[in-house]
Specification:
Layout: H1 3-20, E1 25-29, E2 39-42, E3 45-49, E4 55-62, E5 66-71, E6 78-82, E7 86-94, H2 96-125
Antiparallel strand pairs: 1-7, 2-4, 3-4, 3-7, 4-5, 5-6
Length: 126
């Protein structure tokens, strides 16, 4: 038996599983501004401002009057947003039910692809 079909089967199973690992997450409300001194949140954090689209930041520090962080996307510049303009702060959260469903669906599809390889290989040999 050739190694090419074996490698194709391995890729057919591995690639969808790898692709599904980070697929199921949603945003949940994160920490808000508080009276305590500077608080480091880390990242990534999605900040929804009163007058503009949401921005994803990393390395976020929340002070008494401003929120500081680096843009998650290039050019990764430093951003300062007044706390009075922040409407919503959200952190990413893995959705376990959706992740399990996606992995089961992916495994089922991978098994179907491998079964097709076996069927095709057997048909050629006969």
């Amino acid at each position: 038996m050739s190694t090419l079909p074996s490698r194709l089967r391995t890729l057919a199973v591995a690639l969808p599983l790898i692709a599904s690992l980070g697929a199921c997450f949603s945003w949940r409300r994160g920490p808000a501004a508080s009276p305590e001194p500077d608080r480091f949140v880390g990242g990534p954090v999605r900040v929804t401002r009163a007058g503009g689209p949401p921005v994803v930041l990393t390395g976020v520090t929340i002070g008494r009057d401003s929120l500081f962080g680096n843009e998650h996307a290039k050019p990764h510049r430093r951003v300062a947003i007044p706390v009075s303009e922040v409407r919503k702060l959200e952190e990413p959260r893995v959705n376990p039910l959706a992740s399990v469903a996606l992995v089961v669906l992916t495994v089922t599809a991978a098994v179907a692809v491998v079964a097709t390889f076996f069927t095709h290989t057997v048909a050629i040999v006969d």
